[in-house]
Amino acid sequence: MESGFENPLEVIDSFIDGERVDVVRFKAALAESEGRNYLVDAWMLREAARTDAASGGGFAAPLPVARRVHARPWVLVAAVASAIIAGFAVGRGTSPNATSAAANQSLPTAVVVATPAVAAFPVPAATRVIQLEFRSDGSSGGN
Amino acid sequence: MSDVERFYADHRDGVFRYLRRVLGGSESARDLTQEVFLRVSRAGVPEAGEAGRRAWVYQIARNLALNHMRDGRRRPISVALVHSAVPATQELGLALQDAIADLPEVDRHIFVLRETAGLSYQEIATTCEMPIEAVRSRLHRARQALRVTLGHSLRLSEQRGVRCLDAGSGTRDHE
């Protein structure tokens, strides 16, 4: 049972809020007109508060689900092992030793001859022709 | 249905309405309700009685609401009623939203936890981490402040009468 009220009308609060109250104290509070007015106003406030709250509708969203931040340990281990095995297999299949060994067994040796770069870079047409003459009297060249 | 799903189904509407009332906006309340139950799904529902679980989830909601308010230095804003049958009720509802926004922060949370979420004094004491006597005293103070602020609207609403509502059901009796 409630005790230690700061205000005599608090017993009315306790009563309307479903708490067990002292009957003598409750009767005394209701004997005063202020107590009766307070009781009625408190009921009206409750009705207004609940009607207003209910008019806003409910909450229809689905339950929010927490995302898993940490993956399960065995998933991580499996992923790392798969990556190692796959990397080993790919590396073994494409390494130079493995390629040349296989080629030596099944294909003739291929000789690669370097081709001149001239074909790839055509010489532009001459824009100015300089003709050099060589004379035997020693007047050509020098001073 | 898992424990978390059942817990979500039982409390999502109450938490949303509590946040909507203390924050004053449906968008913020929707986001924070998602955040509340995201934390619930991460932590799992505690091994406690129903009262303890309710206090626990509303404590999460209250802390998020307080952080939200302090981060933005926001004052709760009024929310227009979507629909209401009686004009007097609508006027009182609108006035009540403004009046609740003007309450001191702790009193506002306590009033809304009681009247909208339907928490008991013990549950509110656990949620707000204060003695039961303080809860009762602050609740009385909040009601007195609302009576003063809403005097005119309350007198208008008197004409349509008043009915007894269950002390512990929050808004569930309207659904």
Give a description of the structure.
- The complex is a heterodimer of chains A (143) and B (175).
- Chain A is mainly α.
- Among the domains of chain A are: 10-54, no CATH class; 73-101.
- Chain A is built from 5 helices and no strands.
- The radius of gyration of chain A is 51 Å and the shape is elongated.
- The model of chain A has no long low-confidence stretch (mean pLDDT 76).
- Chain B has one domain (3-76, 85-169): Orthogonal Bundle (Arc Repressor Mutant, subunit A).
- In chain B, α1 (3-23) packs antiparallel against α2, α3 packs across α6 and α4 (87-102) packs antiparallel against α8.
- The relative contact order of chain B is 0.13.
- Mean pLDDT of chain B is 85; it is low at 80-85.
Which radius of gyration of chain B do the C-alpha atoms yield?
A: 16 Å
What's the total count of β strands of chain A?
0
**Helix/sheet category of chain B:** mainly alpha
The proportion of residues in beta strands of chain B is: under 5%
**How many β strands of chain B by DSSP?**
0
Tally of separate helices of chain B: 8
How do the SSEs of chain A run, as a string of H and E? Answer: HHHHH
Q: How far do the termini of chain B sit from each other?
A: 23 Å
CATH superfamily of chain B: Winged helix-like DNA-binding domain superfamily/Winged helix DNA-binding domain
Average of per-residue pLDDT values of chain A? 76
In CATH terms, what is the architecture of chain B?
Orthogonal Bundle
Assembly type of the chains comes to heterodimer
Give the SSE layout.
The complex is a heterodimer of chains A (143) and B (175).
Chain A: H1 10-16, H2 23-31, H3 33-55, H4 73-94, H5 96-106
Chain B: H1 3-23, H2 26-43, H3 50-72, H4 87-102, H5 105-115, H6 121-128, H7 132-149, H8 151-158
Helix pairs in contact in B: 1-2, 1-3, 2-3, 3-6, 4-8, 5-7, 6-7
